[in-house]
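A further point concerns the way the authors explain their paired sequence and structure data. An entry of this sort, consisting of the sequence and the corresponding backbone structure tokens, reads as follows:
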Amino acid sequence: MITLDKEETPYYNFSIIAFDRGKPRRMAKAWVNIKLRDYNDNAPVFQSQHYNGETHENAAIGTVVVSLMIEDKDEEKNPVDFYIIDGDLQGQFEVAKNGKLLVNKPLDREATASYELTVLATDGKYVSKTWVTIIVSDVNDNPPICLKTKYTEMVSENIPPQTYILTVEATDADSYDNSRLYFYLTGEGHQDFSID
């Protein structure tokens, strides 16, 4: 006896012949048509074991980061539910019924620059897992901050040109070019001084 599998052979058509033992021998023939009903015997499978996505830290709620594609060999598709089971403690992301991984809450690259998520798909009977790496790219959303708001320094009036007077320090929480600082002088008398 073989195991039936609708995905392999959805229909069977054969005949049955019945003979009697009399003389003359008589027979009857009947046709049998069997159509297999699908049974949930296949797991939903992610098309990739690992997905990569990228989004800006100012991405709107509902922005699609990556589409998670599922294959299920069952003819009658069972609804698939997705769950993020690891790597997203704050609920920054969600996966819609169609497999699209979406931004669910505001992101902040300065707090978290990347996420490593584990996503589970289930059709109610079988489960499948995949991993998703999400890079959060920087936008210039932080102003520079001077470590002091006022600098006071006493210098001699006969100080030679190009003499070091003081260091002004500032930081910017953004990354890359967004955090590169340039300084310039303004206000009365600024032309008598320079800053690097």
Q: What stands out?
A: Residues 140-195 form one domain. The two ends are 86 Å apart (CA to CA). The CA atoms of residues 19 and 27 lie 4 Å apart. The chain has a mean pLDDT of 88.
